[in-house]
Amino acid sequence: xxxxxxxxxxxxxxxxxxxxxxxxxxxxxxxxxxxxxxxxxxxxxxxxxxxxxxxxxxxxxxxxxxxxxxxxxxxxxxxxxxxxxxxxxxxxxxxxxxxxxxxxxxxxxxxxxxxxxxxxxxxxxxxxxxxxxxxxxxxxxxxxxxxxxxxxxxxxxxxxxxxxxxxxxxxxxxxxxxxxxxxxxxxxxxxxxxxxxxxxxxxxxxxxxxxxxxxxxxxxxxxxxxxxxxxxxxxxxxxxxxxxxxxxxxxxxxxxxxxxxxxxxxxxxxxxxxxxxxxxxxxxxxxxxxxxxxxxxxxxxxxxxxxxxxxxxxxxxxxxxxxxxxxxxxxxxxxxxxxxxxxxxxxxxxxxxxxxxxxxxxxxxxxxxxxxxxxxxxxxxxxxxxxxxxxxxxxxxxxxxxxxxxxxxxxxxxxxxxxxxxxxxxxxxx
Length: 430
Known about the structure:
Layout: H1 2-10, E1 19-20, E2 23-24, H2 25-37, H3 48-69, E3 85-95, E4 98-107, H4 125-136, H5 141-152, H6 158-165, H7 168-176, E5 183-198, E6 200-212, E7 218-225, H8 232-244, E8 249-255, H9 261-268, E9 273-276, H10 278-286, H11 294-305, H12 310-324, H13 329-342, H14 350-356, H15 360-376, H16 382-394, H17 401-420, H18 424-429
Parallel strand pairs: 5-8, 8-9
Antiparallel strand pairs: 1-2, 3-4, 5-6, 6-7
Helix pairs in contact: 1-2, 4-16, 5-6, 8-9, 10-13, 11-12, 14-17, 15-16
């Protein structure tokens, strides 16, 4: 390996044969050829990448101390300056290619502060990003620790991993308080239930507000933890927070019959229409019926939510009541109580109906969150749960293909919104 590295160093002044992305292809080929001839593997302990990382880090550190002292190593100009090199100290840092032992130079008055590997730093930045990415994909601290040990041969404690992921909390707070658009066509509000240990383990809702922008993009506005007893006062607080962050108008809010939310919406945005998710309404109906009747009830209710007008929907529901009301009065009562928030979508064209009749638009986000939450089992506190959900939504759609599909899907609906709401979207773009 020493001969190979010496060859690389001697080739540094050579003119590159071909330059691609700033790399000397001839040098790379020489390095790989020498490694192969020496029987060295590319990755793993003692591999080429680890050796290169060590050389690069130590070379950079040597350059840093030279800049700090003002003279090169062994340069007579350093005599009598009051400070000089004072040997090195060994240090192991965890990098993207595994643990690397490096020699860090020191000076006599201990004023040298390395930048590339700071004092007491044991991990390079890429490792922290890797840990956060693995956590966002649903791996627990124990699983991440095992992964780093298996793949990189690095022993990283669960506490260290937890400390790394805690770094996202500052970003989460900033994200939760960022300014928002003045107008949104639609905001979907739904809940994910997580287990939080607060004295005893209990299910707690984490509410997610997902908006569609005037350009058809998906924008998650924020996360809020509840205790299951939320009412109008709680929702007034949440919606007022959104208004204070810049949301002056919302055309429609789609939700799952959350208690107190319709009243809070009317208070904060008087012109906003509240739409109950039809899919959730159907699911809740099945809770009051025997499983053997689910198919028949679904078939009997379909003419209600596919009716061309509200009047036609009321007629179809009267027929449903005549057929099933005596057996399942709770279903009739459920629909009557939700009727005011169920019928608004019936007044719109099919392009709008398709996208606002349910909270399906948020279900892909919920599915990603559920995978991350399920891996944890339960959380020690509310902040830990919010951190997990935040990391999950920040890792959504890394390639951007989902964003393109989302925009194309919403384009016809946004055109219909522009007409149906008398230019309120255009006013929001000004």
